[in-house]
Amino acid sequence: MTVGLFIPCYVDQFYPKAAIATLELLEKAGVQVEFPARQTCCGQPMANSGFEHLTSGCNELFVENFAQYDYIVSPSGSCVLHVKEHLHSHKQEAQAQNIRGKVYELVEFLTDVLKVESLNARFPHKVGLHQSCHGQRGLRLSQMTERVEPPFSKPEQLLNLVQGLELILLSRKDECCGFGGTFCVTEEAVSVKMGKDRVTDHLQHGAEVITGSDMSCLMHLEGILRRQKSNVKVMHIAEILNAQEA
């Protein structure tokens, strides 16, 4: 198979290590990966702010960049969910619809398509998993605690394959961090309080590292940790699944 690597703009600009780890993980799994150099923002920030009618340029370029691949994979649940639910094209609607069915967040691609059952990874640290809302409630990467159904978590499934890693238990493991895209700008005080609550939950249970599949949420938590002068780090799950620490 040939996979088109979709790297969200904020990952490209601020967290390139997450993008590199994603590439290396896919290549280790035997996947041929290509990176369309002309890709830009998927349009999610505009759509979240009520301006989806202004995203047509982003949509058309996305179709041009990714229509030819067997799958499209990205280390961002929120961006993937946006493409899955909102990608349209005035010029190539059939291609856009096809893309919506073959775009995957990294964790779901590793578990559902590649069906990864082992990893050559080692990360001897206590890790707290932040389950982002888009991934959990939109992409169903993990079960929601309010549903009376058997629990599951695709990120936990992968993290449990990493040697030396201790996954800590949280008091409220599926609570929103408060980032919410432009919500953190329009409702700053609420957003910060929610983020502080999530950080506190991880700190109280001894986390050395907070991970997740959405770097945007982790960026929000990282800002709070830095202001608190905490030594706790944030890392995208791809970086941990690709780690080789002694």
Automatic annotation (TrEMBL):
> Which Pfam family, giving just one, matches this sequence?
CCG
Protein origin, superkingdom: Bacteria
The cellular component terms of Gene Ontology attached to this UniProt record, alphabetical and capped at eight, are: cytosol
User: Which species expresses this protein natively?
Assistant: Rufibacter quisquiliarum
Membrane-spanning ranges: none
Q: What is the lineage of its organism?
A: Bacteria, Pseudomonadati, Bacteroidota, Cytophagia, Cytophagales
Identify the residues that the record assigns to the Cysteine-rich domain, covering every copy.
Answer: 3-83, 127-221
Instruction: Report the protein name in the record.
Output: L-lactate dehydrogenase complex protein LldE
One Gene Ontology MF term: oxidoreductase activity
Which residues does UniProt call coiled coil?
none
